[in-house]
Amino acid sequence: MEYKDYYKVLGVDKKDSAEVIKKAYRKLAVKYHPDKNAGNKAAEEKFKEISEAYNVLGDPEKRKTYDELGENYMQYQHGGAGAENFDWSKWQNSGRQRSSSGFNHDDNADFSDFFESIFGQQAGASSGGRSRRAMNGEDYQVEAELDLEEAFAGAKRQLNVSNTTLEITIKPGVHEGQTLRLKGKGAKGFNGGAAGDILITIHIKEHPHFRMEGQDLHADAPVDLYTAILGGKALVRTLKGSIRIDIPADTENGKVLRLKKMGMPVYGKKEEAGDLYLKVKVILPKNLSDKERNLFKELEEEHKKKHPQS
Asked: Taking a C-beta distance cutoff of 8 angstroms, is the pair 152, 237 a contact?
């Protein structure tokens, strides 16, 4: 029986939510509906194909079975969706292959339980009469993208996982690639087994001003020429807001200033944080008047008198 990739038919991904699949189906249904394509046999066949695909993927139970059986789904469906008509020898062979590849000898029991979960106890009995045993549920993996400011202060996110919307709170201090775990929120277990978990991988958007290195932050700090030479205060950005910091006299361009505990907080530890490193970027004055240029010339001459070798 030829395998039909229903996800490909609807132009969606296997990870897409039920809502995304529903929208894709509606869009295609409008495009290929017979009322809009009178006499077009190709459009009529396409409409039947997308309707068949949505009939499976639009139903949570059918979609689950389709995902689990893969290429065997068509045989399962046309065999009357019963264990007595389903040729699951490939699954048994798969279990034997896994056993010879290093898995333990109880793998066939896993396949027995798998068929029991779909077809009922009859399949379990026909697969060798092994007793039913508990199986833990599958873990779900999702991704969440945050701005750096959200990673710094913490954030809330709504996630759609297996047709269920969850609102999660992300603590301050998460970093790129970190995985958060929600225990017991994954797929249900079989025969009394524990539910799986939800694993959330964090991605942090690139920031136009700050760069993260571990829990430390790095950024440029613009300082005007006069303040760099004479010393004074400079206004700089931090993730807690703009503040004024002291600039020592004779601060060179490129000098790095360290602000302790002004970096990213340590995840789960409120009192700990990295540092903020500011690289001084001296800003030269522009649109000088003749008087200002003459003053700079006087300074240059005075400097040469004092330092003739420079």
From this structure: no
